Structure formats: C-alpha cells, structure tokens
Amino acid sequence: MTLPTPTPRFLPAGTLALTAAAALVVSTVVPASAEPAIEPYTTADNVEIIFDATEVDVPGASSALDAEDALAESVIDDVLDFRSTELSTLDAQDRDVRVDIRETSDDAAFGVAIVTAPEVEGEEPYAWLFAAELDSDGWEVGLEGTEEFSAILAGSDLMDTEQRETVAASTDPEQISPMAYTGVGLPFSIGTSMVMTGGPHGFSSGPPYSSVDFAGGNGQARAARGGYAYSLCSGWTRVIHDNGYSTDYYHLEDYQWLPGNNVGVGHYLGTQGNSLCAGGATTGAHIHFALRAYTDPNAAGWYVGLGGRTLGGWTFVEGASYGGYAYRDGVGTVYPGGSLYNYGF
C-alpha cells in the first residue's frame, strides 16, 4: 500500500524567528514563587522584641506580621540606617538589636532601641528612645535626636502633657544653638567628691570623647541635673534635661527603674557597679558618665565631646583616650586618679 505524500506546509515569513525568541523567553522566565523571600528582621537570631502584651496594645497588625513585629521592623530599619550598617554585620560583631516597646496611644508608640555590645574592653552599646506614628503606609519612626522624633512625639498623646512637651522640645535639633555652658553637674551629689578613674573617652572605641568614669566616695550615682529619667535597661539610665542636653549613667547596681520619671538634680539612680545590661566591659566598679547634646551642631543629637566644656564646675581637656584632665581656676588641675569635687552648675 502506498502512503499519500504529505502536502508541504509553509510558515509565514518571520514566524520561525518569532517562535525561537518566544521559546527563549519562556525558558528564561523564573516563576515568582522561586525568587528568594526577604526574611523579616524580627526572625533574625540577634533580634529581641520586648513588650508587655497585658499593658501595651500595639496597633497595626497585618497578615504578614504581628503588630509588635511590624513596629519593630520599622524601628530596626531606622537603627540600621542611622548606624550605616546591616543586621548581618552586627551579628558578625556579636551585637544584638533590642526593641523595647514601652507605650502606645491610638496610632503612636514610644520605646527604647538598643544595639548591644560584646563583653569586650573598648566595645560599648548604643541606645535611643524612639517615637513612631502609624499611617496608611506603615510606621514612621523617629530616633531620639532627630526632627522626626520630636515632631512625632509632640503630635501624639503619648506620655502626660508636660513630659511630652518637655522631652519633644529638649530633643529637637531644630533649636540649634552652640552651647559653651552646659548647665550640667557631675554624676554624684553636689558638695561631695569622687575619683575620676578615667578621663575623657568615647562611649565606644573612638571619639567623640563624651564620657568620664568615676568611682569611690559613697559610690552613689545621682542625676547631674533635673529632667526626665528613662531606664534603658537594668543598669543604664538616661536623663533628658530641659536645656538641650542629656546625661547617661551606665554600669549601675542597686538600680532604680525609672520609666520617664521627672527627677530633680541629685536624684538617686543607683550605685557604681559592673552591670553590663547591654554589653561592654568593666575593670572595676564605677559610673560611666556621658554627655549627649541635641541642639548643639557639633553633636547632631548624639554624644558630644567634653573637651572645653564645663561640668560640675570643672572644665575638661581631652588627651589620649581615658587621659586628659579637668581644671578649675583658683583650684587647680586634676588628672585621672585624682578626686573631683562637684560644685554643681
């Protein structure tokens, strides 16, 4: 039996090229489901979220994240941007990120963000108060010392009125004015003395040299000026003063927890100690005392160098880290290892 000869079929001109191109496109398209998903910050091993579900009701839950996780994501994003780093980089440095959600009101939130440090000499933690506001696009976050922080806080119902207005105004970097006079004392009672165990040095391994270490005396840490006091973790307090400065007190023991209390100058904060609630290191019980400035253009809402500034009646001069000295006209010069008397401000 003879099979019929098939009739030739011709494709229109260009069809072969088009078909080949289409096949190439099909072969190179990757299904969306195969693209790697971006993991939320909150799933990382070096992230901790702290909040009391019985006291803090965080708004803004989504199908993807719990409400507190959604807020923490935005806070962490701001922290990483401020420090110009990545979460993986911090992890490699043995640093964790904590987001402590302290208060909410309507669509606003307030709390503390901390980047911890490894327990190694010369490594210190960082911390900020934060304010956040929820809108249709998600959380807008402002870290302490930024315009966003002051604006969000001032426009919210967070805190009581006087506290909110004072903190927002005191930390507003728009009120720029170089300040030669700090109006801040030393971290122990006026009229008493402690040993300056470490001269001006950084809160981390380098400048600005914003910090001084004290020990001895009766060992008690006390507010260097009145203001609103915030416990950043158990052993680390920040007092925001009404003059564009705040002061930090770290390594404290016998600690008084202060969630925004209005305190006066000389208020008891704790005692000199070796607490490492956010990491770092100590070589003996002391008070790590540091100065931050919000309205000083040299600080931009961060720690500010002590060189040339007067605290407790003493003007500090920077040298090598932990070196330098303090002097007072008519009294003399004190080097590390010497005793400083707190004349107040």
UniProtKB/TrEMBL annotation:
SUPFAM superfamilies reported in the protein's UniProt record: Duplicated hybrid motif
Residues of the signal peptide: 1-34
UniProt keyword Metal-binding present: no
Keywords: Signal
Source organism, top-level taxon: Bacteria
InterPro entries cross-referenced by the UniProt entry: Dup_hybrid_motif
Protein name according to UniProt: Peptidase M23
